[in-house]
Amino acid sequence: GGKDETDEERLDRLEREMEERSAMEELEAKVVDAKQEMAIADALDEIRTRNARNERAAAAGAGAAGEEKEIDPVDEERRRVEREDEERAKRAFQTESGEKVRRIGEEGDGVEEEEGGVEGVGTSDKATMPPPQTVPEFRRVVKKKKDLGKALGIKRKPALV
Questions:
Q1: What is the DSSP letter of 98?
Q2: Model confidence over 24-62: pLDDT tens digits?
Q3: Distance separating alpha carbons of residues 48 and 106, to the nearest angstrom
Q4: For the segment 59-107, what is each residue's pLDDT rounded down to a tens digit?
């Protein structure tokens, strides 16, 4: 009987070791997967930051000579529109003689704190601020249900009651 117990104990011990090994292998596989996911996420983040940096550099040097890469027509159109907007903004803040429009506080009209509030805030900034944009309202509109039976030519029998 003693030998059977040792064989059973040995089998139990081996079984526990196998379970521990398989648990460790699963844990190691999870760690490897997590490391791969982290590496992929880091690579994506690096690509995104590089793309953002390239866009900023392209926007800053849009007119620079010597760029040999292909120009996307949609991207070129967007840059052209942005340049036109900048020109319109410059013209909007110039007088007819080409002089820049000045803030009220810059001309030395004697804007007092009682009139303009705290210096740098108040009426002097409103002269150069664009008008506030209206915020669209999103309300739930209840639509009237269509009688699809009529559209299909289905006729209903009148109620008997």
A1: S
A2: 999 999 999 999 999 999 999 999 999 998 998 888 887
A3: 43
A4: 888 755 444 456 677 888 888 998 988 887 777 777 667 676 666 664 4
Per DSSP, the residues of 108-136 read: T----HHHHSSTTSSHHHHTTSPPPPPPP
Count the neighbouring beta carbons within 10 Å of the beta carbon of residue 99: 8
CB hemisphere CA count around 54 (13 angstroms): 8
pTM of structure:
0.30
Question: From CA 72, how far away is CA 62, in angstroms rounded?
Answer: 12
Q: Which residue carries 């040097």 as its tokens?
A: 61
CA Rg value for the chain: 37
Q: Residue type for 100, please?
A: K
**Do 115 and 96 touch, CB atoms closer than 8 A?**
no
